[in-house]
Design goal:
Strand order of the largest sheet: 1-4-5-6-7-10-11-12
Order of helices and strands: EEEHEHHEHEHHEEEHEHEHEHH
Distance between the termini: 15 Å
Number of domains: 1
Subcellular location: Cytoplasm
CATH architecture: Alpha-Beta Barrel
Number of strands: 12
Active site: 11, 130
Catalytic activity: 5-[(5-phospho-1-deoxy-D-ribulos-1-ylimino)methylamino]-1-(5-phospho-beta-D-ribosyl)imidazole-4-carboxamide + L-glutamine = D-erythro-1-(imidazol-4-yl)glycerol 3-phosphate + 5-amino-1-(5-phospho-beta-D-ribosyl)imidazole-4-carboxamide + L-glutamate + H(+)
Oligomer: single chain
Family: Belongs to the HisA/HisF family.
Structural class: alpha/beta
Radius of gyration: 17 Å
Shape: globular
Number of helices: 11
Largest sheet: 8 strands, parallel, barrel
CATH superfamily: Aldolase class I
Protein name: Imidazole glycerol phosphate synthase subunit HisF
Helix content: 25-40%
Length: 257
């Protein structure tokens, strides 16, 4: 059985690590490289950095902070945000990233996923998938819609259909963030994560909503996630990664120490 992964997420705005709530209202929490080193030493399996400067402000990628991360972090890390071209993939990988995530540009031109996979391999290509639920008149979720530009623009696309298309094109992993859950600490969108796990054949990283240990347990057992992204829980000192893994191990969930 493959071990479940615990993956800290670090949002980067103007070269500073920040924390958002529902993709808005950023608060500075530290230095990207120093935080990455701290979480690495505490037992993180890998890291995800989200460059919100590039994605929200339509700016070019900033490489210097990524090089600093690569100098201090010795576990795999992904960079997502602002990736628009094959050249962006090359620049990030050369700067030290192990994987590159793409969201808005892939929606606008899906062939980018195929091109990147053919050159760098599927294992380097991560689909960033930001989702919002669509409700019926009875306030029941009937489907999820894809959003781009760090959760600010709706596309009308169905999340599951887009995930299936993207994996066929070359995405080797999906990070699925439920926008309405992001930073709320009330649990992951387990129903959506389970659906993606069943409808695609690539690893699914659940993102958005972790507030207590039971939420992570639930997304692994009921949601069938391959990895759980954590942010608020560790950024504000509620838990350490070691504590999270000890809890999961006691619940017979296979994690790496």
């Amino acid at each position: 059985m493959l071990r479940k992964r615990i993956v800290p997420a670090i949002d980067v705005l103007n070269d500073k690590a920040v924390k958002y709530i529902q993709f808005r209202n950023p608060t500075i929490i530290g230095d990207p490289a120093e935080l990455g080193k701290k979480y690495t030493e505490d037992g993180a399996d890998e890291l995800i950095y989200l460059d919100t400067t590039a994605s929200l402000k339509n700016q070019d990628l900033k490489i210097e902070w990524i090089r600093k991360v690569a100098e201090q972090v010795f576990i795999p890390f992904s960079v997502i945000g602002g990736v628009r071209t094959i050249d962006d993939f090359k620049r990030l990988l050369r700067a030290g990233a192990d994987k590159v995530g793409v969201n808005s540009a892939a929606v606008q031109r899906p062939e980018l996923l195929r091109e990147a996979a053919e050159i760098y391999g599927k294992q380097c290509v991560v689909l960033g998938l930001d989702a919002m639920p669509i409700y019926n008149d009875e306030n029941e979720i009937i489907r999820w819609e894809v959003y781009t530009h760090s959760g600010h623009e709706k596309t009308g696309m169905d999340v599951v259909e887009w995930a299936q298309q993207a994996t066929e094109l070359g995405a080797g992993e999906i990070i699925c963030t439920s926008i309405h859950k992001d930073g709320m600490k009330n649990g992951y969108d387990v129903e959506l994560i389970k659906l993606l796990s069943e409808k695609t054949n690539v690893p699914i990283i659940a993102s958005g909503g972790a507030g207590k240990l039971e939420h992570i347990e639930e997304v692994f057992t009921d949601g069938k996630a391959d990895a759980a992204l954590v942010a608020s829980m560790i950024h504000y000192g509620d838990y350490t990664i070691s504590e999270i893994k000890s809890y999961l191990q006691n619940k017979n969930i296979n994690v790496r120490f």
